[in-house]
Amino acid sequence: MRHIAQLLGSAARPALVAACVLALLVARPALAQVAMPDAGQMSGIPLPAGELPDGTISVRVVRERMGNNIAGQSVSVTGSGQTKTGTTDDQGRAEFTGFPAGSTVVAATTVDGEMLVSQELPVPARGGVRVALVAGASAAAAKERAAAEAAAKEPPRQGVVVFGGQSRVIFEFQNDVLTVFYLLDIVNNARTPIDPGAPLDIRLPDGAQSPTLMEGSTTQATARGEVVRVTGPFAPGVTSVQIGFSMPDVGRRYTFRQAWPAAFEQPFVAVEKIGALQMASAQLPTVETVNADGGKVFTLANGPRLASGDVLTVSFTELPVHDMMPRWIAVGIAFAVIAAFLAWGFSPARTPARTSLEEDRARLMRELVAIEERRHAGKPKAKDADRRPALVAELERVLAELDEAPGGGQGAAA
Q1: Total domain count, the chain
Q2: Same domain, 242 and 390
Q3: How far apart are CA 90 and CA 73, in angstroms?
């Protein structure tokens, strides 16, 4: 996820980081789990069913949840100027045929005075369509919400929380510096607030710099030095903690280690694959390399549950750490140019020949500095490789002539 910092606005919007990675997980069940919607959300929605006979409409009637079937219930299906009725069997299903392929029908029934109507159902030429009609879903959902709200107001009780399955550890590079994001969901699966008995202290890896709690983090979290502390109690559901920090002193090989103060349900790590970069971890056996928009390539890995106190260990090789030598050469040449101009400014009047040599020296140095800066920025010109040796040779000649010119001895100052 290179250049994510530009999207985040200095890491202020970490949800975009997660979106970049999670978008890659669509249709990848090995790396992501898909939660099924509740019965109320499924009510009346058509689902293609290739296993049914051609043109079959299957209507299932249930009370409040799937599996609580209503048998002997009268159901009607209307479309193409006709209405057909049927009665549900022991599985709560009634099947209808005889509607023209390509037409649309609507299924309906009334349970305890509640009228249930489906969306428009297309009649396929191949296979069939299934639809569920759920009675009492709204009342059941309201009852569930009321019970959850009441439970959430109860005094906290002792228990455990976990880092949920949507928690992520993401690595990227900002200005050649390894940057790490923790997008953590602390999950309380109970119906009441949970007090784990002690704060969750996330001690960041050695060398972590500028740790920051990003937008979206709970106010229960504080960052002090290399420790992020999250205090309880934890409300039912999810408490979000989003941390960003940099690791500026890693080389081409780096081993990341992070101990977790609570169980990590499904550890997941993502890194943009730049050049020959490789990521490996015995704890993350499921690895996938995927292509994203813009030609970027990502390595994604996950593994089984880590217990509280376990250390997640991930090894990186061939990290894109650039050689600093060209930068220092360019800086040294720049200082030499400044020194040369200062020497020229405070020296006695020069002969015309010496003045010309010093102008040549300044010109050659400026051109060398420009070549070094382009090479460091990764944007060299085609002629730079051949031009640089010629410039160095010419500069050596000018410096030698300066040493021999009247008032000499200052050529080497360049």
Answers
A1: 3
A2: no
A3: 10
